[in-house]
Amino acid sequence: MNIIVCVKQVPDAKDVRLDPETNTLAREGVEAIMNPFDRHALEEAVCLKEQLGGKVTVLSMGPPQAEEVLREAISCGADEGVLVSDRAFAGADTWATSYTLAKAVEAIGTFDLILCGKQAIDGDTAQVGPGLASRMGLPYVTCVQKTREATDSSIQVERMMDDGYDVVQLPLPALLTVVKDINEPRVPSLKGKMKAKKAEISMLSASDVGAEAQYIGLAGSPTQVVNVFAPEARGDRKIFSGTAAEQVEQLVDKLKGYL
Amino acid sequence: MLIVDADKCIGCGACEDNCAFGAIIVEDDLAVVGDSCTLCGACVDVCDVEALHIEGGEKAVQADLSAWSGIWIFAESRHGVLAPVALELLGIGRKLAEQRGVELTAVLFGSDVQSHADQLIASGADIVLIADNPALAQYREDVYGRVLEQLIKEKKPEVVLAGATAIGRSLIPQAATVLGAGLTADCTGLAIREEDGMLLQTRPAFGGNIMATIECPHSRPQMATVRPNVMAPAEPDSERTGQIVKIELNDEQLASRVEVLETVTSSEEQVNIQEVEVLVAGGRGVESEKGFELIQELAAELNGAVAASRAAVDAGWVSYPHQVGQTGKTVCPKLYIACGISGAIQHAVGMQSAETVVAINRDENAPIFDIATYGLVGDLFEIVPLLTRKIQEQRRE
Ligand SMILES: Cc1cc2nc3c(=O)[nH]c(=O)nc-3n(C[C@H](O)[C@H](O)[C@H](O)COP(=O)(O)OP(=O)(O)OC[C@H]3O[C@@H](n4cnc5c(N)ncnc54)[C@H](O)[C@@H]3O)c2cc1C
Ligand SMILES: Nc1ncnc2c1ncn2[C@@H]1O[C@H](COP(=O)(O)O)[C@@H](O)[C@H]1O
């Protein structure tokens, strides 16, 4: 089974802090990591490959340094990495991103399955997976919490819903987005790390994948950010003191509106 | 692309200071743009010497905006139950429709769902479009997507809203992609701009550390998913009248490659923590499954539900659908009581937009106190039962 895993490099949320004075994101030492959900997508792909044979290709759209997450993915069991990178992609929203990834997938060629994370933690949109599936005309399922059965022609999964889960079967090729419940990602092996160091990452530009200028980056993005601001601060705040009973007393007094 | 005119730039640093993404640095008296630039344009607005401009933003495809009219909401129903968010969408939808002077339409898919139509009209819908067919009994991405796309293409609404639920967030991106429409995820604020009737969509970004307002200037419909529990549902009025329209469906539309073999609704998971008003959350400090009984009791007393940190979920004391945070769910209850949770940023991003946050923790330096409205410093095993009892007493009075 040939699998493409879409991985995104994102800023680590623990470093992203709003500076209350200047109202901007603190920029010092923000570390870039592999989107946590994509780690689970990658693990699932590697497990399926171990079971059924085939190849795992990791695909990312991003700036040149996103190469790091592709190497990391190779150290965790992926076979090949493809980075689509171009200044012209800047300002892409999910519509333009799914277009660009679809073009890149076409350039990669044949595949049986595409795996994405449920969402990327920078934007939390969860839109790129379904968007990519509809561009490729693929059946898809979001929020997969378990693969029950996979063959070369079909896959049966559990789709997490708000009130439980559904068992869903779909033919391949298909696209799935996964939640973290699906597996426990492995840590890279020493051998994997060696392989990652030497691996050749294919770098593709917009024209390499045949992406048209009008559909990529800012020009291809129907949504536009028009304002960025700090969330409203909490009004009345209080840390109580005293014995447990005294603190409970004070709290209940404050919570009257909710009781 | 953001272009810096080197002849005009005086290196004042105003752009650097106003870039929320840290994408501009002034080097040798010249602004230099980095890769994290999102082309939001904030710097262009603050540049006094007009040294910055955005290029390449000209849209190739421009919709004929005047051809699109009316506000739509997707009235999600599953297993015969209308999702509470549907009524919240009617609440905000009603306001938007009145401001625009257009009709509010609820779109209802399912099997034997007509009985919901009256409730949707009472809660604000002028028109209910019903696609009722056994093939729509289960949510299937391809069928729901196709039916919705075709309806939108045919009737051309200017705005389409859906709940940011499992179904809404799976269905709507598909339709938006095919229609070439802008889509904003998980909005917490929606408003119409007076001058041009544009929908302004506000949502948290970077886990709620910043808020962003987004618009779709050139495409239609303007689509958004809306976070449950944020918008107020309209007061139902059984006197309201509206039109019920049944949609004709053909076999081609209803063909599917996705087969739902089985549906499991676990009673424990039946409450969607994104839809309840009060959440009592436990973390590693709760120590065991048994400890969670205390959390459960307090939640029951408040008519709320149980939530958890990742540490508690990983320990197996609570199941994953209850996890709040970056890799769990984002919740927005009226009241969030965090018990034995340290308040790591990955947890905080999932709950910090709750109206009131109460933190119970024995470590007075725990970061959870930085985001709490009210903090209680002490042993949760002592405080939680006391609190449950106290609330019980209050209720009886
Ligand atoms: C990529 C990534 C994604 C993550 N996603 C999430 C996520 O979605 N959600 C999430 O929650 N976490 C997430 N985490 C984990 C997060 O960083 C924290 O590790 C986790 O939230 C800690 O859970 P906790 O607060 O329950 O445990 P701890 O940090 O161990 O805190 C326990 C707290 O309980 C207090 N305590 C102990 N005993 C008592 C007592 N008897 N009475 C009162 N107080 C007591 C302690 O003082 C302490 O503050 C993620 C981490 C990573 C790296
Ligand atoms: N730039 C990107 N490169 C590769 N994959 C991406 C990119 N953006 C999003 N994805 C994939 O789409 C998923 C959902 O992202 P999002 O819609 O941005 O929340 C992620 O978990 C990734 O699998």
What does this structure look like?
- The complex is a heterodimer of chains A (259) and B (397).
- Chain A has a single domain, classed as Rossmann fold (3-Layer(aba) Sandwich), CATH 3.40.50.
- In chain A, helix 2 runs antiparallel to helix 5 (190-198) and helix 3 packs across helix 4.
- With 259 residues, chain A is α/β, with parallel strands linked by helices.
- In chain A, 27% of the residues lie in helices and 29% in strands.
- In chain A, the strands form three sheets. A nine-stranded mixed β-sheet of chain A has the order 11-10-9-12-8-1-6-7-13, sandwiched between helices. In chain A, strands 2-5 form a two-stranded antiparallel ribbon. In chain A, strands 3-4 form a two-stranded antiparallel sheet.
- The N and C termini of chain A lie far apart (56 Å).
- Chain B is an alpha/beta fold.
- Chain B has helices at residues 14-18, 42-46, 84-100, 117-122, 141-155, 166-179, 251-254, 291-301, 310-314, 345-348, 368-371, 380-396, and strands at residues 2-4, 24-27, 30-33, 52-54, 71-75, 77-78, 81-82, 104-110, 127-132, 159-163, 183-187, 189-192, 199-205, 210-215, 222-226, 243-246, 259-264, 278-282, 305-308, 335-339, 356-361, 374-377.
- In chain B, helix 5 (141-155) packs across helix 6 (166-179) and helix 8 (291-301) runs parallel beside helix 12 (380-396).
- Flavin-adenine dinucleotide (FAD) binds at residues 283-285, 309-312, 323-328, 340-342, 344, 346-347, 350, 360-363, 366, 379-381 of chain B.
